[in-house]
Each structure stands twice: as structure tokens, then as C-alpha cells.
């Protein structure tokens, strides 16, 4: 768990290469009421500085990484032109439960198991877990796990899902839920899945502990699967979550953030887990490495498309529609795809963002600029491009109702922003 608080800024390791938050050293950031301190020693003596920013009575820290974007995502914005015109096929699409109908029975069993595997050791953690599991959620990641499991099981002649497939789906949803609990603490969000968030109900301490507990519990179940490749895959995902949250926290209100960095962050926060869900499912079906790789790429492209759509919806939907606060990404300085595209067009936007919306009405003005200068449309194009790539990754699968549902999932996601 990445814990960013004003009183005790900790990253748990020194190798992340952080520099001070820039309250005073970065001229283009105007931050009021800053104080500085020294980060407590970590890993036996290596000190890093910390800076504390207090904005609008909310304690907040910003740290900056000096690392450059990783090479593995290089070229993510390039590639051959789409082979499928998705927009033409979006006329009548099923609902999410229609899509998952072919694995409805698997999802039903998963829902029953989830509550029990969270563990009954601590009643408070149990209640916290119940709050978020009981609030619903689309169960998209386990559904994708089941769909790929069944689509690939057909290839290797498996008659049914194995217990490893099922346990993987449970682990994945547990990790997702843990990441949401922590994400809501970091984003200071009070609503999730239409209900109060865990930290809103039980306080930040319980929310951090409940998230940690779920990460730990999922690791235990993961280890018991006794498949080293999957253990490495999922461990990387848990690390990626922290990296994604760190990246986001360290670039708030930073208008220098470019599309590649945004995609890397989105990979860490979202696509990594979805890619691991689909790849892990293929591994447990025992299919060839090239199919396993295509399933990873499918999950990654779908995950990126999904996060871009989520970021667009933050601008276009109400809190009621979202089941969580709307419009808060920009207000909190999280500059997502629509903003990054708009910044390329409209220089005035930079000044407004860098003033951290200190003037009344400036947030609304920024949103207006983003909408008027085509930021949303370009983000939609990006989401479409990633969805097209995801669908292309499915070409290696034989025709089946499961493959069809996987294709429709990519299109359904786009339907949300039509
Ligand atoms: C929310 O994921 C977090 C993002 C990656 C944007 P979901 O939209 O899948 O959340 P639930 O599980 O349905 O609530
Ligand atoms: C995705 O990012 C969250 C995680 C995968 C942890 P967001 O911060 O955009 O998710 P929402 O909008 O809060 O659901
Ligand atoms: Mg969030
Ligand atoms: Mg969001």
C-alpha cells in the first residue's frame, strides 16, 4: 500500500528515486502554505526529503519521480490502422449482464465464494469488506477471466474450468477491490458503487488496513495456486498499483505530463490487472505461449481503453450515473487524456490548471475549454484505437460464444461514451 499522508510520507523503499515534492523548487507550481520536512529513514539510512502541501484545508503531499517513462510502453501510440470500424457496429449492443450471460453461472459461484475467502478473522475488516463487495460492481475482471478461461479451454480440450481458473478469478476481484479501497482514500472519494466508501464509513485507518488485508489475503491464495508464472504475473500487478498511484500523486497539476506517461500510469493502475486476468486464464488452460501473449495484449489494450473511457466519463457524466463523484479528476489535479489533448490546443488552459483553480469559476472555465477544443473527442479516438487493437488480439481464438463476448466487451466499453 502506498501511504501518502502529510504527517508521515512513506514509500517503503528508496529505490523509487523520488525527489522533493516541489512546493518551492518548481516555480510553475503555485502552492500555498507549504512546509518541508525530512522523510524518515527508510531501508537503513537513505534519506529522502519530503514536502508537505496544505491546499484548501486538505493536507496533501506531492512527490516527483526523476525516472523517465519505461521503455516497455514505447510505441504505444503508434501501430497499424484499425481493421474494424467499431462505430458502425455500435448500433445495438447488449447490456453488461447480457455480455456475461455465458459465464453467469461461474460469476454466481464466484460471488458466493468471495465473501467467505476474505476471511472472518476480524469483524471490523469483515464489515469493511462486506461494504464494498456487497455494494456490487460489474465483476468485469472475473468475467473476463472466465471468458478467456472457457475460450482457451476449448483449444486445449479441457471439458470444464479447473479450480485454478476459479480461484484466479476470485483473487483478481479481491485485488481489484483492495485497490479501489486504497484508491478512494488517495482520491478522497466518498462514494463507490453508489454507496459510501470504506474510509468514509470506518475511517482511513480501517480502509488502509482492509485494503492491505485483502492484498495480503489474495497473495496467500495466489501462492497456494503453486504456479510460479502466475505468481510472478500477479505480484507484478500489485507492485504496478502502487507505481500507478505514486505516478499520479507525483504529477498532480503537472501540465508537462504527456500521453505516453498517462498511458504508463493507466497501465499500472488499470490495464496491468486486466491483462493479468486474461493472461492468467490462458496459462491455466495450458495453451501455447503465443496465445497466452495475445490474451495478455487483449487485456492490456482493453484495460487502457477502459481507463480512457472512465476518464472521459468523469467529464461527461453525473455523480448519480457514475455511482461515485463526478468531475473530481481535474479538480484534484489528475490530468487525464481529455486534458492532455486539450493542453496541446489551448495554451490558456495551462495557466488555469497551474493556478490550481484558485479563482472562483476557473474549474468550470477549464472544463469548458476542454470540451470546446476537442479534448473529449480525441480521447474517444484513443479509446476506440485501443479497443480495435484488443479485438484484433482475439483473432487467434476459435469462434465461440466466449470469443464473441470478449469482442463485445471492447465495443460495450466504447458504448459508454457514445
Ligand atoms: C473502476 O473499475 C476502476 C477503474 C479501473 C476505472 P470498475 O468500473 O470495473 O469498477 P467496479 O468493479 O464495476 O465497481
Ligand atoms: C482507477 O483509476 C482506479 C484503480 C484501478 C485503483 P480511477 O481513480 O480513475 O478510478 P475511479 O474513477 O476512482 O473508479
Ligand atoms: Mg479514483
Ligand atoms: Mg476515474
TrEMBL record:
Provenance organism: Dorcoceras hygrometricum
Annotated keywords: Isoprene biosynthesis, Magnesium, Metal-binding, Transferase
GO biological process: isoprenoid biosynthetic process; plastoquinone biosynthetic process
GO molecular function, one term: prenyltransferase activity
InterPro entries: Isoprenoid_synthase_dom_sf, Polyprenyl_synt, Polyprenyl_synt_CS
Pfam families per UniProt: polyprenyl_synt (PF00348)
Required cofactor names: Mg(2+)
Protein name: Solanesyl diphosphate synthase 1
Source species, domain of life: Eukaryota
Family: Belongs to the FPP/GGPP synthase family.
One Gene Ontology cellular component: chloroplast
